[in-house]
Amino acid sequence: MVRQPLYTETVLRQKMDATLGENQYVLKIDLNTKTVFCLVELTRKRMQKSVIDMLDQMVPLDYLISVALRYNTWKKINENLTWQQALQKTWRMMKEEVL
Asked: Measured at the alpha carbon of residue 92, what is the angle toward residues 18 and 40, in degrees to the nearest 5?
């Protein structure tokens, strides 16, 4: 007897949207390697634990789950800070501060 999964990708994305908001995460599901990878936007840093708990409940046990924060990239820093502003900050501040 083949059992159907309790949750579909659509339902998972709807719950993620409800928890984090639309466009506040990147979710990649690879059925071949049985992996689920989620990047949570820096603005939702405090919700990371909730996302991990939700994925633990919804994703099948034989899947590897990985959740990380989507830190600022050089491109985003370059678009939002001048060199003068950047010189006043540490790399850690630029990487982790919401821009």
From this structure: 15
CB atoms within 10 A of CB 51: 20
Q: How far apart are CA 32 and CA 24, in angstroms?
A: 25
Structure-derived torsion over alpha carbons of residues 88, 91, 93, 98, reported in degrees to the nearest 10: 110
Q: Which of 28-32, 44-48, 91-95 has the lowest mean pLDDT?
A: 91-95
Strands 35-41 and 25-30: antiparallel
The CB density around residue 6, as the number of other CB atoms within 10 Å, is 9
| Token pair recorded at residue 63 | 């899947």
Question: Once rounded to an integer, what is the mean pLDDT over residues 41-61?
Answer: 93
Q: Which amino acid is at 12?
A: L
